[in-house]
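User: We ran a pulldown and think these components assemble together. Before we commit to crystallization trials, I'd like a predicted model of the whole complex to look at. Sequences follow.
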Amino acid sequence: MENTFVFTFGSHTDGDKSMKELLGGKGANLAEMCNIGIPVPPGFTITTKACQKTIENGMHWPDSLYEQVIKGVNHIEKDMNLGFGDPNKPLLLSVRSGAAVSMPGMMDTILNLGMNDLVAKALIDQFGNERFVYDSYRRFIDMFGDVVMGVEHSLFEEAMEKLKAEVGASSDLELNAEDLKVLVDRYKAIYRKHTGHMFPSDPMEQLSFAINAVFSSWNSSRAIKYREISHITGLIGTGVNVQAMVYGNIDNNSATGVCFTRNPSNGEKVLYGEYLINAQGEDVVAGIRTPIPISDMKHRMTEVYDELLGYTNTLEAHYKNMQDIEFTVQQGKLFILQTRNGKRTGQAAVAIAVDMVKDGIVTKQESISQLVQPEHIDQLLHPQFATTKMDEFEILGKGLPASPGAAVGMVVFDSKEAEEAKQRGEQVILVRVETSPEDVGGMSAADGILTSRGGMTSHAAVVARGWGKPCVAGCSDIIINDQTQSFTNGDITVHQGDWISIDGTRGLVILGKQDRIPPKLNANYYTFMRWVREYEPMEVRANAETPEDAKVALDLGAQGIGLARTEHMFFGADRIRSIRKMIMSDHEEERAIFLKELLPYQKEDFKDIFRVMAGYPVTIRLLDPPLHEFLPHDENELEAMAIDLQMPIEQLKRKVVALEEHNPMLGHRGCRLGITHPEITKMQTRAILESALELLAEGMETKPEIMVPLVGNVREFKHQKRLILEEAEKVFEQYNARINFQIGTMIEVPRAALTANEIAEEADFFSFGTNDLTQMTLGYSRDDAATFIPSYLDAGILTDDPFQTIDREGVGQLIHMAKELGSITNPNLKMGICGEHGGDPRSIELCHELGLNYVSCSPFRVPVAHLSVAQSAIKQAIEDSALYAC
Amino acid sequence: MENTFVFTFGSHTDGDKSMKELLGGKGANLAEMCNIGIPVPPGFTITTKACQKTIENGMHWPDSLYEQVIKGVNHIEKDMNLGFGDPNKPLLLSVRSGAAVSMPGMMDTILNLGMNDLVAKALIDQFGNERFVYDSYRRFIDMFGDVVMGVEHSLFEEAMEKLKAEVGASSDLELNAEDLKVLVDRYKAIYRKHTGHMFPSDPMEQLSFAINAVFSSWNSSRAIKYREISHITGLIGTGVNVQAMVYGNIDNNSATGVCFTRNPSNGEKVLYGEYLINAQGEDVVAGIRTPIPISDMKHRMTEVYDELLGYTNTLEAHYKNMQDIEFTVQQGKLFILQTRNGKRTGQAAVAIAVDMVKDGIVTKQESISQLVQPEHIDQLLHPQFATTKMDEFEILGKGLPASPGAAVGMVVFDSKEAEEAKQRGEQVILVRVETSPEDVGGMSAADGILTSRGGMTSHAAVVARGWGKPCVAGCSDIIINDQTQSFTNGDITVHQGDWISIDGTRGLVILGKQDRIPPKLNANYYTFMRWVREYEPMEVRANAETPEDAKVALDLGAQGIGLARTEHMFFGADRIRSIRKMIMSDHEEERAIFLKELLPYQKEDFKDIFRVMAGYPVTIRLLDPPLHEFLPHDENELEAMAIDLQMPIEQLKRKVVALEEHNPMLGHRGCRLGITHPEITKMQTRAILESALELLAEGMETKPEIMVPLVGNVREFKHQKRLILEEAEKVFEQYNARINFQIGTMIEVPRAALTANEIAEEADFFSFGTNDLTQMTLGYSRDDAATFIPSYLDAGILTDDPFQTIDREGVGQLIHMAKELGSITNPNLKMGICGEHGGDPRSIELCHELGLNYVSCSPFRVPVAHLSVAQSAIKQAIEDSALYAC
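Assistant: Here's a predicted model for the assembly, 1772 residues in total across the polymer chains.
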C-alpha cells in the first residue's frame, strides 16, 4: 500500500469517501459515487502522498508512479472502450487538482487533454461535428498554455478577438469550424512563442505535464498563504484527478445541466434545476444561453430524466442531504459529474430538515447538526413586504425569485460602490446585468441583489441564497445603462442613489423604500425548533431593555433577559432633564434628589419588563456609560439645556469640558460611577426592588438579578454589593416584605478574569461582557479598529473579526480562566455571556465547550442561538462517544 | 505559658523584641530596652492573646488576668518604690495600646491614671507643686472621659474656656492651682452628667476600665477598616502597655526632650535634638514654648547629658540604626521613654550608612538593606540653587534648614489649594504658620514647604525630611496674613500666586523663581553606590532618546538603554514637515519618499545615542503613537500647515477628521501602524542598521535591539520581523557588511501575555510595557483615571495608584504568565520592563521576584533602581537562607 499512488474509479473502484486525506475531497467523492453505482465518467486519482514525494524529490516522480499512471489510463480506456491518443477511437481526459480541504490557488481544471491533430481528425470522424472538435482543441491549447505553462490567457483572447474582427464575427458562436481551425494554429504559434517549445502532441507528455502542474500548484504562493491564513496544517499535498471526458455538446441527443434534489428556495421535494441541450457545462453557468427548466427534460428526454431522478434520489439518501448535482448526457448516455450538498434558503433548509426526518432519511439529531445552519434560521426571521400593500406598489419589473426576503436600499451599479456605501452605513441594492466572483464583496455589502440576466443557478442567485440575502435574478424587464448609472423599464428610469425595494420571495422589483413587516414563521419552523429545544445544555437569554423587545425575545424562545441596559432608559425628554440636573450638581445629597425624580420612571421600566418575563430571570445592569454621554455637545443644544436648567451656559460648558475623556472606553464609567456616585446605585437598586415588591403584591413573581458593570477588583464589587444590600434592607423594611434577588457582575475587564476566584466568592453570577473584554484584552477600540482590522484580515493576521467571533486564544483563555477560578471558590456560580458574541454560532460553541450556563443575545438571534447550542451539544456528544469507543 | 497574659519590664523583664506578635510592637520594644540596661519607666504589657480571649468572651477577662495585672502593678510599685493609690507615695500610670503593626483607630494614651483626691493631696505633699498636680488631675479626667467613656472632649474644652473667661485668663498657663482645682470639680460633674456615673476614684477600677477600652478599640470601625484596607490579617488583638508615670515638669531639675543619635540633615555623628526644662513631652512637640538645642544640656545638666549620650550610643549600636529618642528627666533622674529609627534626609542616610559600616556597627549588606531607602537616593539627585548666584538673591527671610534641597513654586496658603494647583499641573510652595496632620495632602502636593513657627522636629520638618521635600521651618522673619492671603517680612509683601524659591539646605526664603542646578554627588554617595553595585541580579537600563539623557543615565550607572522612543525624534521643524507629508499621502510609494527625507535625521539620532552608549545595548522602539499626534488640531496651525505643504486646507481637515479616534489608546498605533504602513518599519530599520554599520566602519561596536510595539498576536510580530529582516538584508548587501542585532517586542497588550509562548518562539526579548499593560488589564485610561483613582484610594479599593506601583495581582500575574510561557518556548528570552514602574522600588522588587533580567527607568531614577535591585537581592538571599536553615 505504501507505494500505491494511483486509485481507480469506475468499473473498478479502489477508494471511498473516508479516504479524503489520501485522495483529496474530490477523489474520495468520485470513488464513493462509483461505489454506490452512480454512472461517473471513469478515472483515477493520484494520491496526495505522490504529490508530497514528488515535491520532496525536487519534482521527480517516485518510482513506479509513471507505471501506475499508465495502468490508470488503461483502466479508463477499458471502461470507455476508447484509446488515449488512439487515432481511431480517441479518449480525451480532464485533469483536476483536489486536496483534502478545498483551497484557492490550486491548479484549475484542464479539459480535453489528449487532443492533437490526429485525435481531432478521429473525433470528427467519430462525431461528425467539426466545429465542436476544433472548438475543443483551441480551448485545450488555451487552458494547457495558461494553466500548465503560464502563458497569459489574454494572449489567446487577443488572437480570438483579432480573428473575429477579420471574419466579421460579433460573437464566438459566429466562428465556424474553419475559423476555429485557423485559431488552433494561431494558438499553437502563441504557445511556441511564449514557451520556446512546440505544443506537445504526445498525449502522455501532455498528461505528465498537467500532473506536474497540479503538484506544483500545491506550493503556489497563493495556496501557501491561504493555508497560513486558514491555519490549515497537517496536509501533505494535493491529489490529482484524471477522468474521461464526456460531451454534452455533440448533438441534440446530448445535454448538460445542474439540478437540486429539492427546491432550494422553499424545500419542496421536486427535482429542480436547469439544463441545455447540445451544450457544455460552462454554458449553463455562464448565462450566454438561457437554460431550460429541468422539468422540461421529462418530456424531451424521458428515459434519461427518469434515470437522473433515480440517481438523484440515491445520492440524496446516501449523503443524507439535499444534493446539488452536475450531469452530462452524451448521445443519450447519462453521466453524473459531481454531487455536493446544495445551498438553500432558510425556509428550504428547515422544510428539508423536517421532511427528511419524516421520510426516515435522517434522524432528528442529523437534521439539526447537518441540514440547518444558524444562518438559515436567521434568514427566516428576516422581514417581508406586507402582501396587503402589494396593490399600492409601483412594480418596475418581475424577475426570478432567486433568494427570498424583502430588501430596501439605494441603487448602486458597482460592487466597490456598494462596499463604500456600506462603510458609510448606507443601505444599498446592488444592480448588475450579471454578477461574477469579483462582485462578492459588493454583494456581501448590499442589502439585496438585482440582476437583469441569469437563472436560478446563476452566480448571483446561488451566492445570495447561500447568504440568505434577498435576490431577484434575470429581471429582463429592465435595461441597465452603465454609462448613465441608471436602469429603466422603458417607462420609469431609476438612477444611482434612488431607493428601490426588491422582493426575493416573489421576484418583484418595486419603486421606492417600502415598509417591511416581521416574518411569519411556518409550521416547519416550529417543528424544527421543538426538536432543537430538546438539546438544551445552555440557556438562551436575550439582551433587551424595552417590553417590546422582551416580548419578541420571549416569543422567539428566550429563557430570560441576560442584559437589560438601564442607560437607554434615561434618554426620554422628562428623564434626561433630571439626569442632567443630577450631573450638574456637585453634592451627593442634591444629586440624590434629582435621582429621586427618575425613580418612578425607572420603576415603571422594570415593572414592564418583569411583567413580560414573568417567572424568567431578568438581569439588570446598573448604569454603565460615562456621564458625559448624557450631556449635549453641540452649541445649540447646550443653550437649550442652559435655559431648561436655568443655569449659566458657561457653567454647563465647564462641566462638559471637565467630563471629557481621552479614552472614554477606559474612563469613569461602570461601577466606577457607582462608587463615586453611590446615590445612582441606590436609586437603581430601589427601583428594581420596589417594582418587584409591587408586582409581588399583585401576585406576580419576579427573578431580578442586579448586575454591577466593569468590576476589575473584588473590592469594587464588595463596595457596590454592600450599597445594594443596605438599600435592599431599607426597601424591604418600608414594604414590610422581602424577595429573593441575585447580585452578580460583568466580567469584562481582564483583571476581573485574572482574579475571578476572589470575585466569585462574593458574586452570584458572572456575565462575560465579551465586547469590552475583547477591546481590553486585544487593545482594540471597537469604534476605531475599522482602520486596521480589514488590513489584518487581508494579511492573515486575524482570521476573524474578533468583535464578531470570540478570539479563542486570548479572550477565550481569559473566560476559561475566570470560569475555572470562579468555580473553585463558588461552585454554584452561574456564568454566561452577554456581548454581541452571544448570537454568534462559533462563539456559542466556545461557550458550550467552556461549560457556561447561558448565552444572551439580541432578540432576533435567540432561535439562532438555540440552534447553535443544540449543534454544539450534538457535536460534543458525538466526540464524547468517539472517545468512549476508543 | 498558655495562660501568661502579663509580661513585666523593668528590674525584671520577661519579653524581648522578638515577641512583637504577642506583646505588640511597643511592648516588645520596651522589654528590649530594659534587657539592654536602658532606664525605662517600669511597667508591664498585657498580651494580644488576652485581648483576643476577652473579646471572644464578650468582654469578660480570662481567668487569672486580673491577678496577673495586680502582680504587674506590684512589680511597678516595687521598682518605683511607690504605691498605686497609696495616699503617701502614690504611683501614677500611663496606659497605651500597641499591636504588632501600628494602626490608626486604636485607643490613645491615658496619662496620670491612678489619680484621685487623696492621691492628688499626696502628690502635692511629695512635690510641693499644687498647680502641676491639679493640671495633671484635670487632664486625666478629660482623657479618661473622652477615651474610655466616650465623653466628647469638646465638653471639657468648653468648661475650660468658660473658666478662663470667668477669671479673665487669656491662656491655659494663666490659670493658677486654685482655678485648676475648680476645673477638676467641673470636669467630674461633666463626666457624671454624660456617663451617669461618678468619676471612678478607685485606681484599680480606673485601670480595669482603661484596659477594657484598649481591648475594645481593637474592633473599632476605624481599626477594622484600616486592617481591611491595608490587608492586615493574622493579628489576634492589641497589647496593652501599663507603665509608671514620670514627670519632666516638676521643677527646674526636671526636663523633657527628643534627640537623634546623629544629625538627620547631614548625618554628622553628634547628638542632635531639643529639650525643654520643667516641661511635659507634649510641650516640645506642640511648639508653644520654643525648645532649646540639646547641646545646651551639656552645660546645664552635664551629668544627665553624659548619661543620655551613653544610652543613645547603646541604643544606636543595638538597633543598628540612627535612633530618634524621647526622654524625660524627673528631678535629675533620666528616663528613656521611647526609641525608634530616626527619619533623615538622603544626604544623612548615605553618610550614616557609610559611617556605620566604617565604625563596624553594621555590615555593608545591612547598610544597604536597612539604612538607606530608595527615596533617600532620589533626594540626593534633587537639584540645588547655584551657590555662586547667592549674592544676587533677594532674601526674604532665614529659617531652619529643616529639609534640604531647592524648591521653586507659587505661594499658596492652604493645603487644599496646594492639592488643586498640583492637579492643574502647577508648582507651589505651601506657606503655613505651622502644619498639622491635616496638611499632609497639601504638603505632598507642594514642591516645598515654608513655616513661620516650629523647630527642626516640628511636624513640617519631620514630614518633609521623610519625603525628601525641601522645607524651611520656623522662619520668624515673615508674618503670614491669612486674611489677605499674603506674607511679608515688613519690607516686601508676597501674595498668593507669587513665585518664591526656598533653600532647605541653608534655610533661605528667596524672592522669585530661581534657577536650579543639578546636584553634586559626594564621596559618601559614590562609596555607597559602589557597595550597592556589588549586588546585581538584574541590569538597570534607562529610558532615553537624546544623547544628553543617555549621557546622564550612563553617568548614573545605566547599563544600556531599555527604551528609546523614536516618535519624539520627529517633532523638529524639518522633520515634522516630512512626516506630515507622509501622513497626507495615500500611496505607499509616495509615503516611502517622504520617509526617506527623514532617514538622515533618524540615522544621526541613533548614531548619537550609540556613540554615548558604546558597547551597551540600546533598545529602539519603532514608531508607536497614532499618526494624528503629528498633525495640528488648531485652526491657525492647520492653515500654516496648508501653506507649508501647499495643500488645500479642506483636504488637511478631512485627514485630521479621518484620523480622529474615540479611544486613541486602543487605536491605530504601535505595530498596527507598521503593518498598515510597512514603509515606516522599513525606514526605521534602515536608519538603525545604517547608523550601526557606519559606526562599525569607524571602529565602534553597537548593540542595537529593535523593538516592535503593541504586539498582541504572534502573527503581527512575524509580519514586522519579516519586514525588518528583509530590509536588514538589503542594508547589509549595500554596505557589504553585517552586524548582529536583536528583534524583540513590547508585552503591553494583555493578549500578548496570554499567548507569550507563541511570541517567544519568534522574539529575542520581551520588554513589559507596564504603563499600557496596566491601562488595558485594569481598563483604566491613564489620562482619565484621576477622576476616580483618588476615590478608590480613599475607599480602600486600591492600596496604591497602579500607575505608580505595579498591580501585583492583575498586571503582575500577566507578567508572571508571560515569563513562564515565554521561557518554555524560548529559554534564552531576555525579559525586562520599561514602563514608569521601572523606577518604582516595590515594582522593581516584583520584577526581581519574577526573575526578569532588567528594569529600565528614567535616567535620574537609575541609582534608585540600582538600590532597589540590591535590596531585593538581599531580601531574597535572607529569605532563602532562612528557608535553608529550616
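Chain B touches chain A through 48 residues (CB under 8 Å). That may be worth checking against your pulldown data before setting up trials.

User: Thanks, that helps.
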